[in-house]
Write a structure and sequence with these properties.
mainly alpha; Growth Hormone, Chain: A; two-stranded antiparallel sheet; 23 helices; 2 strands; disordered C terminus
Length: 512
C-alpha cells in the first residue's frame, strides 16, 4: 500500500488517511499511560527486595530473609500473605476504578479520563515516596491502582479510534510497549537506588514514578479527544475538525458519516452494560473476557517472579533478582517491538498461535528441568543446566510479549461496536484485574505447594487457550472498527449464528 494510503473501506468507498504528525504525537502521549502502569509493576518488585524497605514496612518478612537459606524450602521462601496483599492491592483498586472509568470514558470522553488517571498517578506517587507508615504506603498503592483502572480503560480505546486502520494494531500496541519499557526502567532504577547508602533508595525509586505520571497528565491536557468520542457526545463540528486534522486530508466525509451513523446507534443505547448481554454482542464479549483470563493463566507472573531464583544458580549472588529483572525486562521490550512490526502484516492469529507453541514448550522444559534438579532444600543444578532454564525463561517472556501481552488489550478494544465499546473495555479491564489479583495473591502459596508442577499447570492452560484461538478467534487485521459485524462476525463459522437480526437493529445502515 502506498504512503498516505487508505484507512479502510466501506461499501466500496475507501477512507483516505495519512499517518500524520498529529496521530503519532497523540498516540505517543496517550501510551505514556502504559509507561506509568509498567513502572508501577516493575518498581514494587525491586523495592520489596530492599532490606531497608522490608525492615520499615514488613519486619516479619525482613526477619525471614535474614535467616539461613536452608531454613525454608526453595519453593516457599516468600510465601507471605502480607507481602502478596501489598502487591495485589493495586489491582483491587484498579478493579473498582474500572466501573467509574467506563462512565467517564463514555460521558466525559477519552481525553478527560486519561487526565483523571494522570492525577491519580501523581497522588499515588507522592503518597508512596513520602510514606512513613504502612497506611500511607497502601493508600498510595490504592491511588496508583485507581490510575491504572482509568488509564487501562481510556488509552486502548483512544489509540484504536485515532489510528488509521492499516496501522491500528501497531499504534495500539504502543500501550503495551510502554508497559514493558516502564518495567525495564523501573528495574534499572531499582538496581541503581539499591546501592544508595542510608537505606532511602526505595523512596527515590517510588518518587521517579512522577515522571511518567506527569507526562500522561500533560499529554492528556494537550491532545485532542477522538472524533468518535466527540461525535458521540454531540460535538459534531469539533469531531469533523479533529478527524480532518488526524487524517491529513480533506476527503474525510465517508469516514465521518460512518462515525456519525455509529454514534446515532450508540445514542439509542441507554444502558450499555445491559446492551452488552444482547445476543449480537456475545462474540466480542466472550472473546474479551476469555482473553483477559487466558492472559493471566499463561503463567507470565509465575515466570517473572521465579526468574531471580533461576538466575541465582548462575552465581549472580545477592543482586540476582535485580539482574534477572533487567534481563527479562529487556527481552520483554525487544519482543514487543516484534509485535508492533508484525501485527498488521502477519495478523493477530499467527502471532497468538506461534506464541502458544513457544510458551508451551518452554514451560514444559522448565518444569522437567526443575523437577529433576531442584529439590526443596537442595540446589544441584549445574551452570549449564541453569543456562538452559534461563534461556527458556527468556523464550517464554519473548513469546508472551509479542502475543498475549499486547493482543490481550488490542483485540477487545477493536472488536466492540461503538455503542458498547466503553462498557466492553470496562469488562475486559475488570476481568484482567480480577485474575491479576488472584494470581498475585495466590501464586507464592501455589508455588510452595505445587513446586515445579506449577509450570505444568500453566502449560496446560496455554494448550487450552491455543485451541480457543484456533476455533473461536477471528482475524481482525485491516478491518475498520465499524465494519466488524459485517466482515468478521457474520463470516465466522460459529459466531455468525449470533448475528441474526443485526441488519434490522442497524436500521438500514449500508453494508459491505
Amino acid at each position: 500500500m502506498p504512503a498516505g494510503g487508505f484507512s479502510g473501506s466501506h461499501g466500496g468507498t475507501e477512507f483516505e488517511a495519512k499517518v500524520t504528525t498529529a496521530v503519532i504525537i497523540s498516540c505517543i502521549m496517550a501510551a505514556t499511560g502504559g509507561l506509568m502502569f509498567g513502572y508501577d509493576i516493575g518498581v514494587s518488585g525491586g523495592v520489596t527486595s530492599m532490606p531497608s524497605f522490608l525492615k520499615e514496612f514488613f519486619p516479619v518478612v525482613y526477619e525471614k530473609t535474614q535467616q539461613h537459606a536452608m531454613d525454608d524450602s526453595n519453593y516457599c521462601k516468600y510465601d507471605n500473605h502480607s507481602l502478596q496483599l501489598f502487591t495485589s492491592s493495586l489491582y483491587l483498586a484498579a478493579l473498582t476504578a474500572t466501573f467509574f472509568a467506563s462512565y467517564t470514558t463514555r460521558v466525559l470522553g477519552r481525553k478527560l479520563t486519561m487526565l483523571i488517571a494522570g492525577v491519580f498517578f501523581i497522588v499515588g506517587t507522592v503518597l508512596n515516596a513520602t510514606a512513613v507508615s504502612l497506611l500511607m504506603l497502601i493508600l498510595g498503592r490504592l491511588a496508583l491502582g485507581c490510575g491504572v483502572g482509568f488509564a487501562n480503560q481510556a488509552v486502548p480505546l483512544f489509540l484504536s479510534e485515532i489510528a488509521p486502520t492499516r496501522i491500528r494494531g501497531a499504534l495500539n500496541i504502543l500501550f503495551q510497549f510502554d508497559v514493558t519499557v516502564g518495567i525495564l526502567f523501573a528495574n534499572l532504577i531499582n538496581y541503581g537506588t539499591s546501592k544508595i547508602a542510608g537505606g532511602w533508595g526505595w523512596r527515590l525509586s517510588l518518587a521517579l514514578a512522577g515522571i511518567p505520571a506527569t507526562l500522561l497528565t500533560v499529554g492528556a491536557i494537550l491532545v485532542d479527544d477522538t472524533p468518535n468520542s466527540l461525535i458521540e457526545r454531540g460535538h459534531l463540528e469539533k469531531g469533523k475538525t479533529v478527524l480532518r486534522k488526524i487524517r491529513g486530508t480533506e476527503n474525510i466525509e465517508p469516514e465521518y458519516m460512518e462515525i456519525v451513523e455509529a454514534s446515532r446507534i450508540a445514542q439509542e443505547v441507554k444502558h450499555p452494560f445491559k446492551n452488552l448481554l444482547m445476543r449480537k454482542n456475545r462474540p466480542p464479549l466472550v472473546i474479551a473476557i476469555m482473553f483477559q483470563i487466558f492472559q493471566q493463566l499463561t503463567g507470565i507472573n509465575a515466570i517473572m517472579f521465579y526468574a531471580p531464583v533461576l538466575f541465582n544458580t548462575l552465581g549472580l549472588g545477592n543482586d540476582a533478582s535485580l539482574y534477572s529483572a533487567v534481563i527479562t525486562g529487556a527481552v520483554n521490550v525487544l519482543s514487543t517491538l516484534v509485535s508492533i512490526y508484525s501485527v498488521d502484516k502477519l495478523g493477530r492469529r499467527v502471532l497468538l498461535l506461534e506464541a502458544g507453541v513457544q510458551m508451551f514448550i518452554s514451560q514444559m522444559v522448565i518444569a522437567v528441568v526443575l523437577g529433576l534438579n531442584l529439590g526443596d532444600n537442595t540446589n544441584k543444578m549445574s551452570q549449564g543446566t541453569a543456562i538452559v532454564v534461563v534461556l527458556m525463561v527468556c523464550t517464554f517472556v519473548s513469546s508472551f510479549a509479542w502475543s498475549w501481552g499486547p493482543l490481550g488489550w488490542l483485540i477487545p478494544s477493536e472488536t466492540f461496536p461503538l455503542e458498547t465499546r466503553s462498557a466492553g473495555q470496562s469488562v475486559a479491564v475488570c476481568m484482567n484485574m480480577v485474575f491479576t489479583f488472584i494470581i498475585a495473591q495466590l501464586f507464592l502459596s501455589m508455588l510452595c505447594h505445587m513446586k515445579f508442577g506449577i509450570f505444568l499447570f500453566f502449560s496446560g492452560w496455554v494448550l487450552l487457550m491455543s485451541l480457543f484461538v484456533i476455533y473461536l478467534v477471528p482475524e481482525t487485521k485491516g478491518v475498520p472498527i465499524e465494519e466488524m459485524t459485517e466482515r468478521v462476525w457474520k463470516q465466522h463459522w460459529f459466531w455468525k449464528r449470533f448475528m441474526d437480526g443485526v441488519d434490522e437493529d442497524r436500521k438500514g445502515k449500508d453494508v459491505v
